[in-house]
Description:
- The chain is mainly beta.
- Helix content is 5%, strand content 54%.
- It has a 23-stranded mixed β-barrel.
Amino acid sequence: MRFLKLFFVPGLAPLGLLFAASGAVAQTAVLTGQVLDVETRTPLPGAVVRVLAQGIQVLSDGEGRFRIEGVAPGMVRLEASTLGYSPTIQTSVMARTSRPTYVSLELRPAAIEVEGITVQANVFQVREDAPTSTQRLTEVEIRRTPGGVGDISRSLLSLPGVLSGVDSRSNLLVRGGGPGENAYYLDGIRIPQINHFATQGTAGGALALVNADFIQDATFFTGGFPVAYGDALSSVLLIRNRPGTEDGIAGDVTLGASEAGITLDGPLGTEGNWLFSVRRSYLQFLFEALGLPLRPDYWDGQFSGNWEPSSRDQFTFTGIGAIDELGIIEPDPDADYEYQEIFQSVLDNDQKSYTVGGTYRRLVGDGGIFRLTASRSFTEFRFSDEDADGEALIANTSVEKEARFRVEGDAGLGSAVRVSVGGEAVRASVDARVYQRAISGGLLTEDVLFDNDAGFWKPAVWGQVIWRPGPLTATVGVRGDGVTALNDSWAWGPRASLRYSTSAGVDLSLAGGIFHQAPSKLALSVEQDGAPANAGLSQLENWQLVGGADWRVNPGLRFRAEAFYKDYDQMPVLASDPRINLANLGDDYGFVGAEPLLSSGTGRAYGGELFLQQKLTGSIFLLGAYTLAWSEYAGEGGVLRPSAWDRRHALDITGGYRIGEAWEIGSKLRFLSGVAYTPWDLDASAETYPLTGRGVRDWSRAGSERAPAYVRLDLRIERQWFFQRWDAVVYFDFQNLLGRENTVGFSYTQDPAFPDRLRPIDSVGLLPTFGFSVEF
Length: 776
């Protein structure tokens, strides 16, 4: 068994954890891993791997693997070096006594070697095909984020250009884009969403679906991403699972204020390993104890497997799934008016989803790579809502499926050129039965009713060349994406980037290109008079330009400044009200796009970012990010207005101090200027409210109002213990330590307590949590 985790909210469970005095005995940890060429994934034998500050070093074996025993437990740094490569350092490696910690050390070929000159070890890896807008986070860096609660979406909020909307949702809003403009990959397999209770048509959601126990690291592109990734306009998130323990079967039992679960992992013969987990929420009991009318309940499961029959062949298997059920309980007649409104306005929301897939990777010749990937995704959505008389207002039962087949390869042509090509065939389908009643004062002029089972193909091809003449790295590529459900099926987008590395440790970079995304499956299922209503749509499009400078002040400290511009075209708007751009929707639970649409919307997002990062090379880590940005969208008339994601100013400062190997204290301060929102049409809302419990926006004034500024301070205190073959950690996490209300908007209400009919929508208040984990 490996983990036993308990998370408590004060007052919900007793505090009590006493550790045995056996911790006084000196303990040691084991580190394992592999040293690889970062470009070709070729193992590097004979590399020197050092545990810095402990005087321990080993050589990697013939397959680049290493095992280091006798390591003092706690947070350590690993350095790897070998002839012909720039050395690299991995910080924030947790050496555990409970099991070996796996570390992948990736080295880049050295451009120039001059006798007598020592090349500094590199802590910050830069992808040659994405020199701008890229950040890599390790598992420890994700977990230690104050207020992040182990949710990778919330951890990414410490980065420049990344917002979340409201505290109750884990949306990713990247550089002025909406929550549906992102792509997610888990071990190379594309997954539809990374959250429970996702919004159909845009993604986003409430709670983390990806189990943080599985994560080895994550790479996040906030713009200018490579041609290998498409069907996204704003960002791409690549999550890589850690391998299972090869020293024997281990386990992880979890219990918390939101979920309970178990994780198992172990060896697969002598050439592989596996992981498996299942978790179940019991938030429904917490909400019941608080008297709330909602009962969110979910299960999720995840598995991963690796098999390497030879040093050149690797098979990876990945799966993730969830069952989400939202119970809505009618409150007592004397219950708070707000609870009665919640019962009346919230849609019944049940979902089931899974993605399974596998990848075969073959190292070919001297530095070539061939990959073949196959996967299948399934998502079932069930939404419903009734009026005060029990008559249906909304009914949506949809099943979305995708079968993906992907092949790609890349190889070096000499030492200065690398070529990549690939293709993908996606068979997509959606079986949708949708009803939306047109009501007086609402957006719909007539009822929407269709029952359609639609299938179509989404092929893609791409190619890319990387050229490295000395300190300059140039990348040129092109990608084509097709959607056979559209009359205009294909869209092509060139992409290019440049990076120039100066002798002063400053990299200058520039990237640009055209990016496309298919309309949602739900939108492509809509029928009108027995024919597809949205076949005339075009693929969503934006062109991007990103430029910046990255200064590595010392091996562990970097400063980056970037400016970006995104120009949107062919964005869908409502045919019933072309003023409404769908990019302004999707920030709430439910679904978006189940009606006739037009591709006449436009938009733009632009701004600048400053980013300071100090890795944990000593006792301090720091992330400082400031973003000044504008996000504007237009309907059919072409008048640009602030979008629902327009914040202008965003400042995030996340830092921490490590006291010895046992204590860590971290805090995060976030300041956001007021978000733009669209005010309510009070007359139309008065008509719809008795039926729906919801108001109607005044879209003639889209984005004309702003919420107050948002300020939040989170604090996390952590203590660790190490014992013989097991270890433990206790932490306290305080969200919104200042206790600010942080109003993010207003909902329409007929509560007598609000005579102006506007109820403030406040973010999470002061929320202290306590938790501990025991790993064995």
